[in-house]
Amino acid sequence: MAAQGFNTDFLAHPVQLPRLGEELREIAWDDGDPLHYEHFSLVMNRETKTAFYTAHNVDRKGLIQIRRSRWKIDPRVDIAYQAGASVYKNNDWDRGHMVRRAAITWGTRAEASQANRDSFFYTNANLQHAKFNQDEWLELENWLLEDPELGDKLSVFTGPINTINDQPYRGTYIPSAFWKVIVFTKNGELQCRAFLMKQSEFWDDQNGKHALNLENYQVSLTQISELTDLYFEQALYEANPMFYSPNNYTDANDIQTPEMQPIESPTDIIETRGDYFDIVQDLWDGDETGFSVTRMKDGRWVNEHADIKLREQGNRKPKHRDFAQFSLFEDVNTDKLATLPTYQSLKALIDNYNLVQSKKEGYTAEELQEINTFLDACFARNQGDQPSLMEQVYQYAMAETAKGGLGYAATKQTDLPFSSDTFGANQCVDFTSLETFKASVKNMWFGLYTNYYSSPTHDCSGFEHVFLGEFKKQGAQYQVGGYHCWVKFYWDEQNGIDGKTDLNYLGSFYDGPEGQLNTDVATLSMRWRVGNKTAHKSKGGFFVGISPECLLAIGTLATIESYRNDVDPLSFFNGEAKRRVAINGWRYDLVVYRETAQDKSRGMHIRSFFPVLKNRDDSKPLLDPHSNPDVVLFEEGDVAISSALPNPVGAGDRNEWVAIRNDSPGLLDVTGWQVKTKSGTTTLRQRLVLSPGREHKVIVRAGGGGAALSNKGTWIELHDAQGTVVSKVEYKALSRSAEGQVLTFS
Question: What does the buried/exposed string (b/e) look like for 542-574 if buried means 16 or more CB atoms within 10 Å of the residue's CB?
Fold first, then answer.
């Protein structure tokens, strides 16, 4: 009797096989019709010669131990479209079962034996590094067979994530990652958990000789679909606690749930949807004294009536060169600026600080009063007696976690002490009342503390660093520290408050081509000169149009959340310093650094706070899809000829090479590019994709007519697929003793 394959009615709730996207159907074996085996089914990919996905049923109570079988070709699939034994010989790559044999050996002994044999068809195998297959992947598979919370019956989907960074190998590709979706019922309700595990770090460590930090995630089912072009039934998306929708909100109940969660052990797995709402967007929307911003498109301002006309110019990687002919701020509504209390009270604080970091700081009675005036303005309710942004942060910190807050009690938090005695000794974060919270905010931002991040730096101030900027000594030169407030930048572009400041905007500096489409943030390079001192900042940035009180509120929020994340990890934090957020359809990391204490712990004074623009919306997946035709947009300087070996050891020139390096922030497809010298051309004919920072040595062979590297000196050019010169270097004649010498160009 023929095997029935995956049983869609195995659980109390029917679960259907996923649907292939249009591009997948074009390369699927047998038009995408599933191949059925005992207790599982799969759909084959003719391009990779492995399965798009597998689907199997697990009856944990009925499992039987069966001896291993032998791997074999499935006669139903053309042998040209199966990755057979030759792919896995004499290497470190396992025949990774997509359907684990130990998970399907259930039922009668005859059924279990047949399922065991069927699991050893090569259609069920994929290239998994031995250390990955026998460690991280095995741990996940053990969890789904052993965790009592999952129940007795499971339906499981598994497959590779094929991306533009896959490695060509023996007629197939080594996947960058693998995914697994587990479906079960609990208390009569359908449940779904989705996981992604990356193995691409093995590209640089094929033998696994070094300790690797492989990335394992619990993810939304939407991310799996985005990465694979496979589409599940709607019920599974709804049943997954990692629910994805634009701007981190669900359509169903308007609550935020995390998009992905790093997993180190089963205790990290999220079981239920959180009730977190994203307060950052609420604060942004409630910023009544923020300025509207417009950019230029096709030589015209998109909104002629905006408060700010932002003229971003230049290219990426400007370093200290000036790529901007005009100021960043073409025009600002100065009438509005002059009437708003928080802007004017901020302006009064600028001359209270020494510009050079580590210079002695202190506050006079007048300066302390100016600080109080600024905070009063930031905490003041509006004319409709609605809570200020700072009051909303206070309410969020006090709200119960079940209701979306941080759950702090209305008491002094003695475990959150301030190291500074600027405003009195033995102070700590105090949520007893709004007034005590205001005093805590004052200490967070204005308390003068000693930072022990590297060498001790005295009299540091979070407010000075973030809002005003400062000069940091780096060897014999100065660099700009902080400086993350747009209105301070505007004032300095207008020759500063005292007429002595010279600030030069050098151009924008985004990691991707879409950055200048966003008017909410500016990422840039700058030169700042005060008196006889000049400081540079190669890359920095700030939100544009945001009011001082909104910047203060979001920075305070992120600082408190940062501490909460230290003791009770929050799903929307990436590590200890990056708070993920989506604002107006754009995705950011809000980077928050707290002071480093003498014992290297992190205190409650703010060290720095700034936004990092990630991408245009919240739908960019963890890995770039395999079907993405635009791998990366590169610009001059993003790809470099980094080194060359013109005179290898021994006779002949067959081992001459030129190394190219991807200096862009994204993956770069260099297939079809050419290395040229006076003697000829070498074309990169095999598929080659470079990850950021990666080098590749191109062997150039004169014997076959390639780009020979003359010992008498020559030029070397790198051309892209369209024939454009991307990088060019030259070298002079080599000495007789230069055999084996590598020439380094950048």
Answer: bbbbbbbbbbbbbbbbbbbbbbbbeeeebbbbe
Run of H or E residues at 42: strand 40-45
Cβ proximity of 578 and 565 under 8 Å = no
> The tokens of 219 are what?
């993810």
- Cα 406 vs. chain centroid, distance in angstroms? 25
> Would you state the structure tokens that stand for residue 192, as one six-digit string?
């779904």
Residue 337 corresponds to which tokens in the numbers above?
């600026």
419: which strand partners?
none
Q: Do the beta carbons of residue 18 and residue 52 sit within 8 Å?
A: no
User: Shortest CA distance to 162 belongs to which of 216, 199, 206?
Assistant: 199
Angle between helices 434-446 and 389-398 (to 10 degrees): 110
Q: What is the rounded distance in angstroms from the CA atom of residue 445 to the CA atom of residue 334?
A: 27
| Local structure of 716: helix, strand or coil | strand
* pLDDT (tens digit per residue) in 578-622: 898 878 878 788 999 999 999 888 999 999 999 998 765 444 333
| Angle formed by the axes of helices 365-379 and 434-446, nearest 10° | 130
Contact 340, 531 (CB under 8 A): no
The number of beta carbons lying within 10 Å of the beta carbon of residue 346 is 27
With contact defined as beta carbons under 8 Å apart, do 167 and 245 qualify? no
CA separation for the pair 32, 30 (Å, rounded):
5
pTM here is: 0.54
Closest CA to 459 of 448, 470, 469: 448
